[in-house]
Amino acid sequence: MPRPMAITLVLIVHTLLAAALVAVILLQRSEGGGLGIGGGNAGGLVSARGAADLMTRSTTIIAGLFVVTSLVLALLYGQEGKTRRIDPAAAAAATASRIPDATSPTPAPAPAGPPAPFAGGFGQTAPAATPAPAQPAPATTVPLAK
Prior knowledge:
single chain; 0% strand; mainly alpha; 3 helices
């Protein structure tokens, strides 16, 4: 099955599970009585306790399936943008574009001074940075022999 078709199928199932989960949660009573149908002390399916057990189990199952479809969708969408095959011409072009050639100018180094003060505020701009004065070499260095 092609990947977009698989994503569409899982997305439809995921949406149906989300709607079913909302419906099952809204059908439950806040006191834990389930649907509240039936009466008496019979331990059958239509008793209050049996309906609550059914609703709890169905909520758990639907929520588990919802989480599983969420993970499957994440995996399918994560694999969608990746290429599986490397084109040798494209790989060579990408490698060549990353290697700087000797004729291209090198960028100037950033100034090594403290950052310019900036008061902030609406409509204000930072003042131009003044270059730091060149520091003399430490006295402990030894000059190179000629």
